[in-house]
User: Which sequence fits this backbone?
């Protein structure tokens, strides 16, 4: 195609474009920007132009060469003006004339024809800035699914892989006073080497699904700060400065409501560790008293701020202890998908509150499994505020490319980013590293590396995974066993069980199912569930699957089975709300996994009350 353009015209374009292809430039080192969502900055969500690019022509030419000038959506070209200036010009795109969508949110609801689109979409908008001299600037994205390449004023500035963790890109010298053009290439395509891989049981929401902000910081700023109650009962901080004056810098941590001040100096690498005894007046965080404190860290010109709760969580034998006392996790699993007829993974604070309030107030839960990937900060902050313990996980799900070093690198980066982002959330109790992954040497090595990472990054929480079980027969009854070497590495074993749904067992037989599991650590039924279409009723003694009555009876029978597992420490049934899943296509499902206790629009099913009553009684018993 490039050969067909007159040379004179190419010369004119060359003046407009950087000498090297913009996306080949080396991006600056990424930063952590912990609690970046609370830093002052400008909101860049709202209206963006979008343009599909199924052949990725804006990235590469069709012989693999650099993208043709006619295709470079990221370039800073005023297409209509160019056309006016030279009627021989040719562009295969015009971002300014492209349709408009409101971000954040998955693109499937932008337009009917976007519903099943997977691939590359270009987003672009303009914003006005007034950069302050001496300060640094970062573009921070809460999440882009699955791969993002970011361009500012026609220059490539950075990229990120992974749909559920935040990233910040330094653009200090790239932001102009006045008008700026930001372009994001979002590619939702996943393959066998991705985390998660293409085959899952949820919707792959391509798009910019969380906040987009331009953040200004001092030249040296607190990039990471982890403030917590240690296992030995002290308040500790680990902080890291980023910038030219990071070494040997004075830092001061204050928690005014506790009268606490702690000062120290960073080492040569800008790191500081400080700790002190717990002030007597500290009120520990728990689901019953979700006390949070304003915490400030001062370092030079920077003021880092967060709201943090303090508590301990540990395992003693088969028990989970919260602040030294046994706790039974009355949970529910939740996908990151808002209530409504046409969800788009647009989790506003109100949308998150609607979901978590249904768990906390509706079900009397004290625990949520945030499946199957890191949920947004909006949700984990709200869990802190409402008092819900959290199982947080990375999408190491089903069939991962265990032998692929690049996949391991991706999973490790995701896990580390998730932990570093959320280490300050008191609600997070369990870091889970895998869901239903078959035992093999390659898988064990892969998950062993993730387990080591969790231990290295956070010694104040529990390590978990949802394991597969084997089924045999003993004394004429089914026997479920865990034969997975990963169990030895964990603090908490999760198992997902669907007897009576995916197995032909009669519901009446479920309570007699035996469980033979390691007896030295807690077990959580991290999933169990049955599909039901809200409003479908069947009053016969043996109701049909997908009726509300079947789901209700399934819950009763499974809870009776669970009551016989001595090491059981918690439940997170599958799940709160019906959610989009393209693999579910029968007449009751129509693109939704119907195992919700409430429908996608919030209609409660009969099983909701079964679990709510069970949890209410359990909470009353545990309070005594
Ligand atoms: C599972 C998976 C979950 C599915 C669920 C189901 O075991 O972990 O992602 O959605 O079963 O509904 O089959």
Assistant:
């Amino acid at each position: 195609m490039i050969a067909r353009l007159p040379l004179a015209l190419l010369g004119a374009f060359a003046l407009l474009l950087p000498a090297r292809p913009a996306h080949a430039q080396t991006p600056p080192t990424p930063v952590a920007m912990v609690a970046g969502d609370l830093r002052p900055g400008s909101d860049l969500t709202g209206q963006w132009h979008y343009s599909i690019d199924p052949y990725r022509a804006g990235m590469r030419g069709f012989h693999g060469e650099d993208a043709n000038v006619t295709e470079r959506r990221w370039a800073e070209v005023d297409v209509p003006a160019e056309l006016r200036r030279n009627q021989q010009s040719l562009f295969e795109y015009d971002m300014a004339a492209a349709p408009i969508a409101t971000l954040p949110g998955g693109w499937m609801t932008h337009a009917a024809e976007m519903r099943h689109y997977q691939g590359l979409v270009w987003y672009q908008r303009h914003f006005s800035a007034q950069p302050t001299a001496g300060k640094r600037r970062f573009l921070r994205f809460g999440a882009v699914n699955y791969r993002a390449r970011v361009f500012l004023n026609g220059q490539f500035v950075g990229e990120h892989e992974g749909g559920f963790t935040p990233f910040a890109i330094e653009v200090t010298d790239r932001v102009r006073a006045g008008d700026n053009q930001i372009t994001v290439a979002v590619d939702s395509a996943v393959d066998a080497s991705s985390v998660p891989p293409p085959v899952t049981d949820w919707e792959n929401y391509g798009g910019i699904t969380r906040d987009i902000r331009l953040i200004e910081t001092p030249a040296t700023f607190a990039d990471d700060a982890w403030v917590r109650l240690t296992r030995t009962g002290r308040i500790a901080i680990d902080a890291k400065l980023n910038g030219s004056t990071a070494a040997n810098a004075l830092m001061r941590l204050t928690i005014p409501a506790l009268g606490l001040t702690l000062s120290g100096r960073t080492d040569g690498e800008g790191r500081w560790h400080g700790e002190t005894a717990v002030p007597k007046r500290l009120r520990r965080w728990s689901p019953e008293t979700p006390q949070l404190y304003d915490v400030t860290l001062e370092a030079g010109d920077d003021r880092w701020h967060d709201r943090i709760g303090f508590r301990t969580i540990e395992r003693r034998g088969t028990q989970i202890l919260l602040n030294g006392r046994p706790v039974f996790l009355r949970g529910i699993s939740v996908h990151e998908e808002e209530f409504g007829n046409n969800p788009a993974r647009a989790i506003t604070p109100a949308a998150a509150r609607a979901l978590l309030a249904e768990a906390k107030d509706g079900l009397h839960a004290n625990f949520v499994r945030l499946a199957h990937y890191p949920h947004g900060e909006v949700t984990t902050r709200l869990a802190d505020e409402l008092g819900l313990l959290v199982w947080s996980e990375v999408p190491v799900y089903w069939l991962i490319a265990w032998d692929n070093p690049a996949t391991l690198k991706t999973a490790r980066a995701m896990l580390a980013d998730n932990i570093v982002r959320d280490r300050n959330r008191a609600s997070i109790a369990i870091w889970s590293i895998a869901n239903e992954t078959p035992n093999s040497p390659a898988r064990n090595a892969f998950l062993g590396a993730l387990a080591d990472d969790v231990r290295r990054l956070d010694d104040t929480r529990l390590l978990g995974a949802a394991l597969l079980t084997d089924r045999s027969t003993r004394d004429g009854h089914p026997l479920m066993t865990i034969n997975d070497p990963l169990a030895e590495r964990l603090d908490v074993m999760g198992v997902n069980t669907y007897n009576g749904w995916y197995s032909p067992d009669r519901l009446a037989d479920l309570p007699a199912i035996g469980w033979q599991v390691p007896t030295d650590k807690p077990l959580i039924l991290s999933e169990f569930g049955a599909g039901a279409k809200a409003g479908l009723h069947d009053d016969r003694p043996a109701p049909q699957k997908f009726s509300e009555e079947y789901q209700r009876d399934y819950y009763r029978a499974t809870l009776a089975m669970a009551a016989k597992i001595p090491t059981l420490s918690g439940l997170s049934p599958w799940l709160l709300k019906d959610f989009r899943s393209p693999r579910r296509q029968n007449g009751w499902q129509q693109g939704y996994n119907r195992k919700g206790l409430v429908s996608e629009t919030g209609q409660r099913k009969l099983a909701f009350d079964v679990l709510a009553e069970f949890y209410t009684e359990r909470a009353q018993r545990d309070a005594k």
The longest strand covers residues 120-129. The pocket of GCB is lined by residues 201, 372, 435-436, 496, 527, 574, 593, 595 (CB under 6 Å). The longest helix spans residues 405-422.
